[in-house]
Each structure stands twice: as C-alpha cells, then as structure tokens.
Amino acid sequence: MNTKIKIAGIELKNPVMTASGTFGSGMEYAGFVDLNKLGAVVTKGVANIPWEGNPTPRVAEVYGGMLNAIGLQNPGVDVLLERDIPFLKQFDTRIIVNVCGKTVEDYLEVVEKLGDAAVDLLEINVSCPNVKEGAIAFGQKADCLYDITSAIKKKAKQPVIMKLSPNVTDIAEMAKAAEAAGADALSMINTITGMKIDIYKRKFVLANKTGGLSGPAVKPVAVRMVYQASKAVKIPIIGMGGIASAEDAVEFMMAGASAVAVGAMNFVNPCLTVEIAEGIEKYMKQYKIEDIRDMIGCVD
C-alpha cells in the first residue's frame, strides 16, 4: 500500500501535515506527537524581523471553531534558522516554512535568508495586509497575487506554495493567477474573516474586532474551494480547513487535494495529526485502495 505523495517534486511519506500557526515548529507538540510519522511539519509564519502581534484578547471560541487575531506574532527568521530548523532536522519529516510580510521586500528578505537552509518547501501567506495597498491582503487581488508570486519565484531556491485566502469572490481566479505566476503548489484555505460580540459587555470579544475563523465550521467552504481550484489549475493543492478526522482528510483528497493540513483541531487533540495519518491507512485497507493517489480528485 502506497501512502507517498509528491508536492513540487518533494516526496512526503504520507499526505498529512500541520497547518501553520497551530503547531509552532513542533517543539510544543513533540511530547505528544511522533513527528517522524508526519508527512511534513509546517512552521508558524515567520517574518524578516520579530512581530509582536495584535493586542489581547485575540482568541475566542465560537460555534464550531475559534476566532483568532494573533497578528502573526513571531520571533523573526533569524531565530527560526538558529533554533527551529535544527530542532526539526532531528526528525524524518519534511520541513515547510510559512513566510509572511507587509511588503514584497519583506517576503523577499525572508525567502533569501532561507535559500541555503535545510528547508524543503516555502509556504507563502498572502493573507497578510499589504501596507502599500492600504492594508488589502496580497491574496485578495489577482494582480497583486500574481506580482508577489512572480517576485518570490525569482528569488526562492525551494519550491513555492502559495497559501490562498478564502476571502475572495472567485477562488478559481486566484488559483489561476498563482499558477500563471509560477507557483509550484497551492494551500487552502486560510481563515475566513469573522466577528464575535459580547452582548452583556456590549463590546467586541477580540481587541482587533475581527479575527480569522477556523475549525469544523469552515470545512464545507474549504472543500468546495479546493474542488473549484483543483478544476482550474494543474499544480498540487494542500487542503485544510476544519479537518478533525481521517474521514475529513479523505474528503479533501477526493475533492482534489494531494495533501492535507490539520490546524485548529490540534488545540483540541494534540495527537490528531498522527491519528489522521493512521486513519487514512485504515480507510485504504478497508476499501482496498493500493495507491493513495487514486483518491485524489476522484469525484467529478
């Protein structure tokens, strides 16, 4: 039985990885999860300099998931290179670094610093506010997405995954723009913008007012977007958004995802990623699927 998949020529032992921002760089989870059993670990978003993130409160529980407005707090790429990458190199798993920035130059600085690092793939978070576009996210306009993807591809030494925002009118248009600009793969979806109000205090629950909705509530939207994007492009897609079980992961793959990432549900069950990898194997045995690739996009 074959559970191996390839993303941009990089082979993963299985299609299960972590979603950026929900797993740190694996250090916090290493006591619960055997990282050797994962296809890849995706780091928390990293910028060219340390980011403090948004003021608190910045996390709230909601029906079917959570809202977060962390603001991509991170210690910067230099700490990642000195501390996190050496830690992850101990394990037999692929390393994917999530990159964030506020200008194209910010992204390029991180990408160039990672050029000679022991990193297998780069995942580019284009849901960051573009300060030169009045804080509109890079991933919300097709021309902006095309431009930043093109610029990063010219500098990157590793294959580039563009992480698409769902907060757009036409996800297929965005997927096509990223592919046309040279993206090697896509990951989707990022969080959906949401809000929660405390009716007793008559104030916003999050200091930022709005936050990103993640968890099981977003899964039907994510599956639909993965399906639409998979029909629009030929490059691999990493599906994510509310995955809480092996069945959820299989659903994403049948919609067209070549791999899956587990996010918010890591906070509920820190062992979930390995359980999903094992659950996919169990599903394949039960239904006599010899090659996991036969599941990818099998619905039409």
Written overview of the protein:
- This protein has 300 residues and is α/β, with parallel strands linked by helices.
- It has a single domain, classed as Aldolase class I (TIM Barrel), CATH 3.20.20.
- It contains seven helices and 18 strands.
- Strand 1 and strand 2 form a beta hairpin.
- Helix 6 crosses helix 7.
- It is globular.
- The two termini are 24 Å apart.
Give a quick summary of the entry.
By secondary structure, the chain is α/β, with parallel strands linked by helices.
Topology:
Blueprint: E1 5-7, E2 10-12, E3 16-18, E4 40-42, E5 59-62, E6 65-68, H1 77-88, E7 94-99, H2 104-113, E8 121-125, E9 129-130, E10 136-137, H3 142-155, E11 160-163, H4 171-180, E12 185-188, E13 192-195, E14 197-198, E15 203-204, E16 210-214, H5 219-232, E17 237-240, H6 246-255, E18 259-262, H7 272-286
Parallel strand pairs: 3-18, 4-7, 7-8, 8-11, 11-12, 12-17, 17-18
Antiparallel strand pairs: 1-2, 5-6, 6-16, 9-10, 13-16, 14-15
Helix pairs in contact: 2-3, 3-4, 4-5, 5-6, 6-7
